[in-house]
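So, can you check these tokens?
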Amino acid sequence: MQEDNKTEYRFNAFHLISWIAVVGGVVVYLLGLWRSEMQLNEKGYYFAVLILGLFSAISIQKTVRDKEEGLPTTQSYYIACGLAFFISIALMAIGLYHADLLPSEKGFYGIAFFLCLFGSISIQKNIRDMSQIAPISTMQSKRSKPQVLTESQKAIE
């Protein structure tokens, strides 16, 4: 019982840290875009790259996990997710390389972008893990309860 509490505490801590990483990364990234002196089309570019990166990171993690668990996945979707993931990273790198920003600003956007990607992958993993743990824990709690049969149930058996 004590080990279950430690595992649950660690799991909740990882889950919380993942959400902090994503929300913090997205908020900081968007605040940086909002306060920057870039043109609107540049801001839109960096916003679109962030959304592409988040979607592709979550999709590729889900596809890899589905393959590991034997769930049906298509190779074409797996390749598309991988391409979108690496394209988002390439677009961010190319955009920052050619941007008229200070090196510290370029680093800021790069770090915030990768923090968002890392956090989104972690959240997807944690949600998937919780969905697998929840049915097991409810099944165990049902098994651990002694079954008391009523008189009518005893008569049926």
Summary: The chain has one domain: 2-156. The chain has five helices and no strands. The helical segments are 2-35, 40-68, 75-98, 103-144, 151-156.
